[in-house]
Design brief:
The protein contains 2 helices and 5 strands. The chain is mainly beta. It has one domain. Strands 4-3-2-1-5 form a 5-stranded antiparallel sheet, with no helix packed on it.
Length: 86
């Protein structure tokens, strides 16, 4: 499924940090993901815009941070890339 069939606007590229369900005190970092805020109470996350990507929905209660946001299609490097991080 193409993400644009689910979310055709407000797509951003950024870094997502989630609570680790296997370790309540732990975190899972998802760098360079495509995100959409919604549906209500959820964060939609994919790792690219290809036809064969998996679309994942995370309840906002699991989301610790969404940072380094820029609109999809914006070719400028992310803040992390500007200081030399991948």
């Amino acid at each position: 499924m193409d993400i644009t069939t689910v979310n055709d606007r407000h797509l951003y590229r950024g870094r997502v940090v989630l609570r680790d369900p296997a370790d309540p005190g732990g975190q899972v970092e998802l760098p360079e993901r495509i995100v959409r805020f919604g549906p209500d109470g959820w964060l939609t996350v994919v790792d690219g815009l290809d036809d064969d990507v998996d679309i994942e929905l995370y309840p906002t209660g699991r989301v610790l941070a969404v940072t380094e946001l820029r609109e999809v299609g914006d070719r400028r490097p992310s803040p992390a890339q500007r200081i030399g991080h991948p």
